[in-house]
Amino acid sequence: MTSIVRTLASALAIAIFAAPAGIAPALADDTFPATLAGHAVLPAATFVAPPADAPADLAISGKYTAPDARRVDAVGSVPGSSFLSSKDAPRLTGMATPFDGQPVQGFSGIKPAGDGSYWVIQDNGFGAKANSPDAMLIVHRLRPDWDAGSVTIEETIFLSDPDKVLPYRIATESSDSRYLTGADLDVESIQPVGDSFFVGDEFGPFLVEFGRDGRAKAFHETMVDGVAVRSPDHPALTTPAVPGGKLAFTVRRSRGFEGIAASPDGRFLYPLLEGPLWVEAAGAWETVDGKEVLRVLEFDVEKAAWTGRSWTYPLDVAGNNIGDFNMIDEKTALVIERDNNEGIAARACAEGDKGPDCFVAPAAFKRVFKIELTDDGKARKIGSIDLLKIADPEGKARQGGSEGSFDFPFVTIEDVAVVDERHIIVGNDNNLPFSAGREPQKQDDNELILLAVPELLSAK
To answer: Is 0.90 surpassed by the pTM of this model?
Structure first.
């Protein structure tokens, strides 16, 4: 989930990096067509009960989401609003915390399970450490029914740490079950390998291995160029007593591992940071050839260690983020790159209007890139599809789009994987209850779309 803590940062990104109306960002690659082949929706108001051995505190989630962060126990008493709406005219989403049970929301990574179903991981809950200690960390196996337009939850796995693998205090420390919550990890990516799930976290950032039963098995600090990488949420960091001084972190809050790809044989993992690294000598975020870059790291599963090898992924627009990352073969991969905006341009606010019935900064850049990890340590962009310009000649859309076209205008599009030689699957993180990208005042659902993109997948 896009961190609620970074609302101001997102607002600044909108002001600085959003393309002016009618002007598309310059792209250095070929744009290929995409056709909607299927659309399945899981309603936002979908919940699961916590396990019987979970602490009683986890029966009600979202108790700390009030603006002043105080605990609120009354279910449904704190209205949700889009974190990208104006403070002067907040766009209410129609859903309110706390929730009775655990919400099924925030899909931030997707991987095929091999039988037509898909593994997805939920993120940390409500966007920040402070407001998510009662949001459980969950992996689901979903099955989209493209004909019916629905999604079935076939399996739910709650992540836990009964063996005390994580080397710091967790929110349920005193319980026997030691279920993990959004105060412990911000899980944003997942890769099944063998009998394990490898999960990418943004608080450290960390790489954590879990068994298929959800129990933590191994924990890895992140190393880049031989140096530990830390975000402001790393457990070892504290707020300075006085202002000024050298930064103690090298990656921004909520810019850790947003995607994890794997080599076809499962030997190597390729975690991808969502934001650039801070280069102290330059006093700036890392760039290559004048572009902000993100690091793709390499982790050896067999040796359980970072190899020291990495690649730089160039952002088309400074301040963009990536949403997910999966390999196609041993050299090429798919990456979602997106801006921090939501909503369609046709519903943009008029000059001077701040809503709430319109989008102050509608989506301008939502793309899936095909890249090649080259031998010179760079990720070469081969081509992309535009998720705001999807053809829908057969009327497959369940919601959104019109007159043979379809769009995916969500702020956080965080799921992409190859289905076959012609199709990919793409999904959104709906940031429950804080995102409204389809309609200005309606909470987004969890949507999965099947896209026919043969030209993109075959591009060299």
So the answer is: yes
